Amino acid sequence: MSEDMRVGQGSVSHNSVGRNSAGEGSVKQGIAAGTSIGAAVILITVGILQLLQGIAAVAEDELFVVGQEYTFKFDFTAWGWVHIVAGAVMILVGIALITGATWARVAAIVIAALSILLNFMWLPYYPWWSILVIALDVVVIWAVSTWNPRLDY
User: Fold this and answer.
1) CA 8 to each of CA 2, 4, 20, 21, 23: distance values in angstroms, whole numbers, following the listed order
2) How many CA atoms lie within 13 A of 132 on its CB side?
3) Which of 5, 6, 8, 103 sits in a 20 to 30 Å window from 117, CA-based?
């Protein structure tokens, strides 16, 4: 009986130490998991907005203000189609991320990185919008890359 007691006490002290570190990890994973769902919603929202922005650029070239000439200047119709395709892909990847598809995590990081590049090149036309989308894309990349869905917590 005393042997059982010692084994029990050892496991209790070991579990309490493990529980504290696991508890801290579970809080971080809980935040990352919640932020990943939020990232999927942000990805879908940004995709919808990019889709609408692309439609506006294709439909009406005079809607956008043309500033200085830049090296990477495209026709607004070309920019519109780029935004339409990027927006559609972002929406699909965001929906797949909500459903928990493993490939969607990698795809979300890749499409968010491409969106950062796309919006960097869109800076001359809408600087504040581009900066906002770049910041949201960074949140998406962080949330998806730090979330470990296989960790029990």
Assistant:
1) 10, 6, 18, 20, 21
2) 9
3) 103
What are residue 125's phi and psi, to 5 degrees? Answer: -90, -45
> Distance (Å, rounded) from C-alpha 101 to C-alpha 145?
14
For residue 112, what pLDDT is reported?
A: 93
CA angle 98, 141, 21 (to 5 degrees): 85
Q: Which of 52-56, 73-77, 78-82, 140-144 has the lowest mean pLDDT?
A: 73-77
Which is nearest to 49 in space by CA: 145, 142, 137? 137
Whole-structure pTM value: 0.69
What are the DSSP calls for 79-148, one per residue? HHHHHHHHHHHHHHHHHHHHHT-HHHHHHHHHHHHHHHHHHHHTTTT-HHHHHHHHHHHHHHHHHHHH--
